[in-house]
Each structure stands twice: as structure tokens, then as C-alpha cells.
């Protein structure tokens, strides 16, 4: 019986999580053609189709879903074995503050992967707005803070940044995404009517940015719904209640990017970042920060 290749499995997991071969490529530091070749070889090895390809990306087949469960475990165990051989296991308690906007569709998957890879690490995760995380981090409520900031208009958007990018004086960059106007799939906005805007509370920096951008572009709008979190905003979008400005990874079932015909103002990118280490930070927290940067990029 053929033996599964761990490198191919790692790439397979990246493809499933990213939703396309192109988006997966930078996550595993390969070209798109190399990712495609690895997936071709993996499907030939197992003898069944694992991915359904379309113009908008890829989804797992039923067999692919089953293999993905094992693939995540195999990749995680491989990582654990290497860390153990190099005495690099993590054991302890870590208080993590994460912005609600960070990869809302697969944050649970990431936390599950961390649990498998670092079973002795006790994570206490709090999901808040970036401003609240920054304040809590400054007060010592969190060991590590992951926040989102809106980039200047000309900053590059597309792919995640390299996983091992060094920390700057202010933060460690993890990934960049486009901001997108989105609504229910097939939503039609009549431009002679005010835009029905869906937002988070007005203490949210993205809420403030969105309002400012619409006013600057002189787009008539009304706040039709205020959700307490991104998950609630996604539900309101899918229900067709209106339009929202969110980061690209918030696109989900029933929600799509609006076509250019809606004539809404252009949007910049956002950057997700780990807040800078505190002076005198423990070695455990520093190692945990590096681990999170690798796993979450």
C-alpha cells in the first residue's frame, strides 16, 4: 500500500485552508505550479479525487474531507516530533487576545491545530476589537495581542507576509488582506436609494473608517444593522440585510464581494500584527509568540 508523503499532506492542508492553489502557494513557500503538481501526485497516490476545482477556487471532495482530518494530525505530529527532538516543546499558560476580524472562518481550525501541535500549552483566548486588545495588552491582561490595522492606500494587499519576518519596533506583521465591499450573493443595490450599511459598534476602527470613506465619496447611506461581532455581521450579510466593508477572509457561504457596478469607493488593505514584546518578556512568551507567528501566518 502506498505511503502518504507528509510534505504533500502539508500542502494539501494549506490548499484546503486557503481555498485555492494560488492562495496556498505562499503559505508553503512554493510556486502555484509546484502546489498543483504536489496535489496531482497526492491524488495519484491515494487513487481518489481529493479536490473539486472551479473558477473561484477549490473545495474538498468527500474523500478530501476525510483525508484532511488525518493530514492535520500527521502534520501536527511531525512538527511535535521535530520540536521534541530539539527540546523545543511548549508547556504553560498563554493569554492571547485576538481581533474579531482575524480569519473568522477558520480561527477555530487554527486553535484546534495549536492544541494538537502543543498539547501542553494552555491557551486562554479572548476575542475583542483591536483597540480593546491594545489597551488590555498595555495593562498586562494578555501575554500576546493580535490586532488589525488599516494600511495606507498604496500598501500592497494580496498574499500573507513571510512567516519569519522579523519584528519591527512596533509589531510583527503576519498577513495582509484586501478590504472588500460585500453583501448577500446576488444582492442588487439600487443607486437611487441610500446604501443599507451593516457595521460593528461605533467604537470599532473599521466602522469609523467605513463611515468616513462613504462620506468622503458622497455615497448616501443609512446604518441598517449593528452587530456585536463579525459572526453576527456575516449572518446579517447572508440574510440580505445590506452591505458591509470587511476583510477578504470574512467572505463566507451566502456572502460575496460586490461587483464594481455598485460604484462604491475603493478600499485599502489591512494588516494583522502581533503587538511588540514587552520589556523583560519571559522566554516562554517569546517562544510562544514565535510559534503563533508561524502557525497563524
Major β-sheet profile? 7 strands, mixed
What global shape is seen?
Answer: globular
**Contiguous helical run count:** 9
Measured by DSSP, the beta-strand proportion falls in 15-25%
Helix and strand element order: HHHEEHEHEHEEEHEHEEEH
The count of strands amounts to 11
Please estimate the helix content.
25-40%
Helix/strand/pairing category: alpha/beta
Q: Measured on Cα atoms, how large is the radius of gyration?
A: 20 Å
In whole angstroms, the N-to-C terminal distance is: 35 Å
Please tell me the overall pLDDT.
85
Low-confidence stretches: 156-169
Short descriptors:
alpha/beta, 7-stranded mixed β-sheet, 297 residues, two-stranded antiparallel sheet
Would you mind describing this structure in some detail?
The chain has nine helices and eleven strands. The strands form three sheets. Strands 3, 4, 5, 6, 9, 10 and 11 form a seven-stranded mixed sheet that branches. A two-stranded antiparallel ribbon has the order 1-2. The longest helix has 24 residues.
Helices, strands, pairings?
Elements: H1 6-18, H2 21-24, H3 32-46, E1 51-54, E2 57-60, H4 62-85, E3 92-99, H5 107-117, E4 121-128, H6 130-138, E5 144-150, E6 171-184, E7 195-199, H7 205-216, E8 221-226, H8 230-238, E9 244-247, E10 255-257, E11 269-275, H9 283-296
Parallel strand pairs: 3-4, 3-5, 7-8
Antiparallel strand pairs: 1-2, 5-11, 6-9, 6-10, 6-11
Helix pairs in contact: 1-3, 1-4, 4-5
Short précis:
With 297 residues, this protein is of the alpha/beta class. The protein has nine helices and eleven strands.
Amino acid at each position: 500500500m502506498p505511503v502518504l508523503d507528509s510534505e504533500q499532506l502539508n500542502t494539501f492542508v494549506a490548499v484546503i485552508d486557503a481555498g485555492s492553489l494560488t492562495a496556498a502557494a505562499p503559505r508553503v513557500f512554493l510556486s502555484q505550479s509546484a502546489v498543483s503538481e504536489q496535489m496531482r501526485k497526492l491524488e495519484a497516490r491515494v487513487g481518489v479525487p481529493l479536490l473539486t476545482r472551479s473558477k473561484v477556487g477549490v473545495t474538498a471532495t468527500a474523500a478530501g474531507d476525510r483525508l484532511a482530518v488525518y493530514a492535520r494530525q500527521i502534520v501536527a505530529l511531525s512538527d511535535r516530533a521535530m520540536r521534541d527532538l530539539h527540546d523545543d516543546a511548549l508547556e504553560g499558560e498563554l493569554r492571547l487576545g485576538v481581533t474579531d476580524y482575524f480569519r473568522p472562518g477558520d480561527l477555530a481550525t487554527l486553535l484546534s491545530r495549536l492544541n494538537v501541535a502543543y498539547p501542553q500549552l494552555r491557551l486562554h483566548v479572548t476575542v475583542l476589537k483591536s483597540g480593546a486588545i491594545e489597551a488590555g495588552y498595555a495593562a498586562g491582561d494578555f501575554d500576546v495581542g493580535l490586532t488589525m490595522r488599516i494600511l495606507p492606500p498604496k500598501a500592497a494587499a494580496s498574499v500573507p507576509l513571510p512567516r519569519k519576518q522579523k519584528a519591527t519596533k512596533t509589531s510583527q506583521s503576519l498577513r495582509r488582506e484586501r478590504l472588500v465591499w460585500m453583501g448577500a450573493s446576488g444582492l442588487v443595490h439600487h443607486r437611487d436609494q441610500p446604501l443599507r450599511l451593516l457595521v460593528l459598534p461605533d467604537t470599532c476602527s473599521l466602522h469609523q473608517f467605513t463611515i468616513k470613506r462613504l462620506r468622503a465619496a458622497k455615497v448616501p447611506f443609512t446604518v441598517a444593522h449593528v452587530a456585536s461581532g463579525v459572526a453576527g455581521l456575516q449572518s446579517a450579510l447572508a440574510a440580505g440585510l445590506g452591505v458591509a466593508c470587511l476583510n477578504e477572509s470574512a467572505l463566507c457561504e451566502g456572502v460575496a464581494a460586490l461587483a464594481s457596478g455598485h460604484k462604491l469607493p475603493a478600499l485599502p488593505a489591512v494588516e494583522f500584527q502581533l503587538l511588540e514584546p514587552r520589556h523583560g518578556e519571559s522566554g516562554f512568551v517569546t517562544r510562544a509568540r514565535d510559534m503563533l507567528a508561524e502557525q497563524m501566518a
